[in-house]
């Protein structure tokens, strides 16, 4: 697919992420094997302090994916009642451990614990999911940094499908530190003209209808419909919501929006698999840059 797709009698093309994720996993596995052979086996630590079922599923999935690629994944489960001191000590210890190359602080966190303060304890070179405010600052300044994996996955998906960004109008719906803000920064770095919309934006459709590229990351089922989409626009759906019937769905009403969009990423099978693959690839990159034999 290329960036000339337009709406019309044909339905929107699908920005599939499964094939891209497979390519990333293949090169990650090769890199992990090379590093292990040199005596630097890549290692990821996932710090967990929650009994949330969704978080538990994600951590199991991430750990399994890491193992299949030759990356050790240590799940450090501190329990849902862990206090700030325990989390602080754990993150400090892992940041100082030369055998650990990537650190992820899983959310949600216990009540009263400030995620921003804890994320600042993750060594930037091991901050493979871009949680440390220093990583966010470096990203904003255009300096080398690990961006949040989900935000990076949006750009990887667009590149994979040949979507040109320079000079294009991009609208990001959502301003989270995990997706909205970093995606906007990454799009700016690619010379797109970027606007950010959020819950206080008046007349959302008036803004989104001008987007060549529309990225939606809010967590609200069916937020974006055909009325929000310009003819031929590229729509990237980052939402992950559980529908009443148990299905995983995004923020875009695909059936409706597909009548105007040029291409839409599916949920599941779009940004999601690319996110996990990139997180593990970042771990291998961190291992390659770490002290020790290479």
Which key terms come to mind for this protein?
single chain, 294 residues, alpha/beta, Rossmann fold, 2 domains, 6-stranded parallel sheet, 3-stranded parallel sheet, 10 helices, globular, disordered N terminus
- Strand sequence of the main sheet, in spatial order? 1-11-8-7-5-6
Cα distance spanning the termini: 38 Å
Number of self-contained structural domains: 2
Helix fraction by DSSP (H/I, runs of at least 4): 25-40%
Low-confidence stretches: 1-9
Based on the structure given, which CATH architecture of the largest domain is correct? 3-Layer(aba) Sandwich
The major pleated sheet works out as: 6 strands, parallel
Q: Report the CATH topology name of the largest domain.
A: Rossmann fold
What fraction of residues sit in β-strands?
5-15%
Word description of this protein:
- The chain has 294 residues and is of the alpha/beta class.
- The protein has two domains: 40-122, Leucine Dehydrogenase, chain A, domain 1 (Rossmann fold, 3-Layer(aba) Sandwich); 149-272, NAD(P)-binding Rossmann-like Domain (Rossmann fold, 3-Layer(aba) Sandwich).
- Helix 1 packs parallel to helix 10 (271-289).
- It has a six-stranded parallel beta sheet with strand order 1-11-8-7-5-6. A three-stranded parallel beta sheet has the order 3-2-4, sandwiched between helices.
- It has ten helices and eleven strands.
């Amino acid at each position: 697919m290329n960036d000339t797709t337009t709406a019309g009698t044909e339905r929107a093309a699908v920005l599939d992420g499964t094939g891209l994720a497979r390519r990333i996993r293949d090169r990650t596995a090769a890199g992990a094997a090379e590093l292990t052979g040199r005596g630097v086996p890549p290692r990821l630590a996932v710090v967990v302090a929650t009994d949330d079922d969704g978080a538990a599923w994600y951590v199991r999935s991430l750990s399994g994916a890491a193992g299949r690629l030759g990356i050790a994944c240590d799940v450090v489960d501190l329990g849902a009642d862990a206090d700030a001191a325990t989390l602080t000590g754990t993150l400090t210890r892992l940041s100082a451990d030369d055998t650990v190359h990537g650190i992820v602080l899983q959310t949600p966190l216990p009540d009263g614990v400030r995620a921003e303060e804890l994320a600042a304890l993750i060594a930037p070179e091991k901050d493979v999911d871009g949680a440390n405010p220093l990583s966010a600052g470096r990203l904003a300044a255009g300096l080398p940094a690990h961006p949040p994996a989900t935000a990076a996955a949006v750009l990887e998906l667009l590149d994979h499908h040949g979507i040109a960004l320079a000079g294009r109008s991009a609208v990001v719906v959502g301003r989270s530190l995990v997706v909205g803000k970093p995606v906007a920064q990454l799009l700016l770095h690619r010379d797109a003209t970027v606007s950010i919309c959020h819950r206080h934006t008046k007349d959302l459709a008036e803004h989104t209808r001008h987007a060549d590229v529309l990225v939606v990351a809010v967590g609200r089922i069916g937020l974006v419909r055909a009325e929000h989409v310009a003819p031929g626009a590229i729509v990237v759906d980052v939402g992950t919501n559980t529908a009443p019937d148990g299905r995983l769905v995004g923020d875009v009403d695909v059936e409706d929006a597909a009548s105007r969009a040029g291409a839409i990423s599916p949920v599941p099978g779009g940004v999601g698999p690319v996110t996990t693959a990139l997180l593990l690839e970042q771990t291998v990159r961190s291992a390659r840059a770490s002290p020790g034999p290479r």
